[in-house]
Each structure stands twice: as C-alpha cells, then as structure tokens.
C-alpha cells in the first residue's frame, strides 16, 4: 500500500515519501478496529445506494407498467424502510468517521508538538513561527483529511463502481460498452492534469504560511508599529499577501474546475447516448422503461466513482505536499539528546562549574564564541560574566543550560560532564532569570508556580513574599488569583522580574543565573533585587550578567569573555584591597 501510494506521486523523492507514509501509517494503525467497523458500514451503505434504482426499476416495470397494485404497495413500503435505514446508517457512520479522523488528527499534532519541544533555539531562530504554525495546523489537517476521508471515499468508490458495473451488465451488456469507452478517456485526462494541481497546491500552502507568519509577527509588535506610525505599511503588506493568495487560489480553482469539468461533460455525453440508444429500444418494444431509467442512474453511479478514484490522485498530490512539509518538521533533529543511561545529580550538590577547553561556534558562523576556553566557577560563589554585547555571554549560558553542546571540550557540574545528564535533570537544578520574562495567560499564582507545579499555595505565598511581591499582590483585585493578560502585559518590568525570582525560589536551584535580568529596572531597584537574590540564594552558585558596574560590585569572581576565552579578572575584593593599599 505504502509503495503503491508513493509510486502514484511524481516529481518527489520516492524514498522520502515512503518514509513519510510509513510514519503516517503509525498513526493510522492503532485505529484499525474503528477503520474495519467503518469499512463494514461503508459496504452496507454502498449496497443500499445500489438497491435504490433497482427498486425504482421494479416499481416501474413490475408495478406501474404491469398494473400490479400489490407490487406497487410492497415497493413503496420497502423504499420507506430502506430510506429510514440509510439515514440512520449515515448518521452513525458520520459520527464514527468524525471520531476516527479527530483521533488521527490530534495524535499527529500532539506527536509533532512533542517533537518540537525537543528542538533547540537554533531551530526556532531559523524559522518563521507562522510557518511552523501553518504546518501544524493546515498541513496536518490536509494529511488527516486524506488519511481518513479519501481512503473511505476510495473504498466506497471501488464498491460503488464494481456494483454499478455488475448491474449495468445485468441490465444491458451492449449499452455497458459505452462505459468502457468513457473510463479510459477520463483516466487519460486526469493523469494529464494532476501535475498541474500538485504544483499549484504547493504554492497555495506556502501562501497560507506567509499569511500566518505575517499575523504572528505583526500582532505582538502592534505597540511598536503604532509608535513608529507604520500601520499603513503593515496593512499594505497584508493586502499584498492576501492578493497573492487569492490570485493563486483562483488559479487552482480554475485548474480544478477543468480537471472535474471534462469528465463531467464526458459523462453527460455518454448518458445522452445511452438514452438515445436505450430510448430507441424502449420505443421499439425491445427494452423496458424501468430498465432504461435504472441503467441511466447506474451509469451516473459508475462514472462518479471513477472520478472520485481519479480525484484521489489529485488528493494524493495535495496531501504529499503537506506530508512533505510536516515531515520537514519531523526530520529536524534535536541538537541535544539525553544519553542512554543518564547520570543522576546527587541531592547534596555543591554547584561548582568547570569549563575545560571548551570550543563552540554556531553553525554557518565563522567566529568561534568559545575557543578552548577553560575556567572554574566555584560552588556557592557570585560570579560576574562580562564582555561587550554580542561577544557570546548568553551563548555561554545556553551551553550551561544544555541548549547546545560544545563541539570540543567539556563543561562539568560538580565533576559530571553535562553531556551525561538528561537536559531536564540539569535544568531542574539551574534557574535562569533573563531580561525577557515569559508570562502565560493564567492567574498570577499559576504563573509563579509554572516551573514547579507541585508547589503548595503556602509555598507560593512564601516565595512571593521573599521576592517582594506582596505589595503587588495586595494591589491586585483578586490578589494571587488575578488573571494576567496575554504575555503578562499588566505587569511592569520590575514586577515581572519579581515573578521570575519567585519562580526561581520555588525551583530550589543549585545554580542561579541572572542574564541581564535587571537591565530593565532602575539602579536602586536593581541594587535591591541583587541584595534580595544574595540573601535568598546565599550558598548557591550565582552567575550575573550585567553591564552595570553597580551590579558587579561585591561579586566573588569576575570573568570576562574575550576572544573566545573566559578570562578570570582579579576578584573584586582583591581589586578593592589593592585600591586601599
Ligand atoms: P551576548 O549575550 O554577549 O550579547 P550572544 O550570546 O547573544 O551575545 O550572541 C553572540 C553571537 O552569536 C552574536 O554575534 C550573535 O549574533 C550570535 N548568535 C546568537 N544566537 C545565534 C544563533 N542561534 N545562531 C547563530 N548565531 C547566533
């Protein structure tokens, strides 16, 4: 089946497609019971559909024309029951169908989301969020529509085609020859059109991704756009994007119209021919009227499935485009993986960090951020990491948090190489407070508790107290239960900072990192925050990154990142002592 599907698709790498279909199949397989159930229902409803014209034929030929009242009543009653039964059956199968396709859709999306959670900032840096969103949303739905809807429509098409064809032959084998002319013509036409449809479908998916990217990028930046009065420019961009989208959509519509219209016209021609020949036979008394009517209905039923089976080709093309876009996300490898047997950090950790001849550079960048850098950051000390903007301080922190691994050398925490640790194990022990504090929609309480969901209400209260959040909580209408807007827009920079510190307190880290965390607040507040941090986290290793001299006064060790080296400057206390001497 998988081989057949990938063979049906031109212009793409077969191996890649087979891999993609195999992946897709892993989501379909767990639903096999539901699929078999729906297939049985499908068989029943196809049989019922085929039964209707036959009943009409009997009604006309054996009832009306034969003037048999008993037959007329029997047929009418049978039709009523068949009608009610079909309606019930279609209701049940629609319900089961939605459940099945929903399960596959959500399983696919959840799996992809989990995979996205393993990818590094490098991945997100190189992609537009709107594009990822469009793959997760539109493309995944397209695949699910194919995996469920098209497969069932193919099945009922095959059944309908076989049944209708058998009944056509039963009614008149001579007239059935018309179908044999019609079908090859339709097949040839649809094969010719399908590559066009595939190319245009890809363009449409990309246009839709452009639109989502635009909205995802500009909506959060609205305040800035207003501040620099560029609203017109952005509306203009949206207008252009929409215009492009619409133009391509209409192109696809026209192509799809011709793809469908030609077979439709051929069918009408065939039907007219059948009426001409069959009608002549009826007038000549060689054939019955009911049979002619049933024949024309079955003719429609035979060509409909041919179209939808060939339409399946078009659906496969569209779906393969989406599948490839989704697989592109799936194929992105995480930079960091947990080792097979990860080391466990002991409860009584000290928090000493050691860089041992560490080399690191970003992919596609010439300059190394670290070039055989070695340094020891003592346990329990306050360490300042300095250096001009863009030198790589945040990158050093990313290495410490294991968002990346060094290309050479080792980073050790209490003598254990970070590479031996599962990222989650390490990140539980390291709390990071950065300038950019992430807030989620939810209450203040939920936000504070985000990194430690098991913390009790009392612990959250105590942490908020320690982080000097009490005044804020008292000023809010519902206190800790106050809902925060999207991205915490109701809080000031300093307040968000305190939330971040409360989060860090709950996390009970062994290492605390403040990455430019206080640059958004004034110096007095900063001094207070730092004093607070030193009080709360005394005995833990604290790493501070800041440009302000005041932040860095009183640290135990000052390390400058310079030319790829972590250079230990004199500890501040020594400098001060030297000054005094
Ligand atoms: P700092 O924190 O000292 O201001 P960063 O660590 O943010 O510096 O950045 C160091 C250098 O690495 C910069 O030149 C920056 O452009 C580059 N850089 C940062 N992140 C990435 C990334 N994901 N991919 C490629 N280059 C990056």
What this model shows, in words?
This protein is elongated. A hairpin with a 2-residue loop joins strand 11 and strand 12. It has two domains: 2-330, ABC transporter type 1, transmembrane domain (ABC transporter transmembrane region fold); 353-570, 3-Layer(aba) Sandwich (Rossmann fold), CATH 3.40.50. It has a six-stranded mixed β-sheet with strand order 6-9-10-3-11-12, with helices on both faces. It is of the alpha/beta class. It is built from 19 helices and twelve strands. The chain has helices at 2-7, 14-28, 32-64, 69-116, 121-125, 129-171, 173-218, 222-227, 231-283, 289-331, 393-400, 423-429, 444-448, 457-466, 470-475, 493-507, 523-536, 549-552, 572-580, and strands at 353-360, 370-377, 382-386, 408-413, 416-417, 430-434, 442-443, 483-484, 511-515, 541-545, 557-562, 565-568. Adenosine-5'-diphosphate binds at residues 121-122, 125, 362, 365, 369, 387, 389-395. It is a multi-pass membrane protein. GO terms for molecular function: ABC-type oligopeptide transporter activity; ATP binding; ATP hydrolysis activity. Its main location: membrane.
Provide tags for this entry.
single chain; 581 residues; alpha/beta; ABC transporter transmembrane region fold; Rossmann fold; 2 domains; six-stranded mixed sheet; four-stranded antiparallel sheet; 19 helices; 65% helix; disordered C terminus; binds adenosine-5'-diphosphate; ABC transporter ATP-binding protein; ABC1_TM_sf; ATP-binding
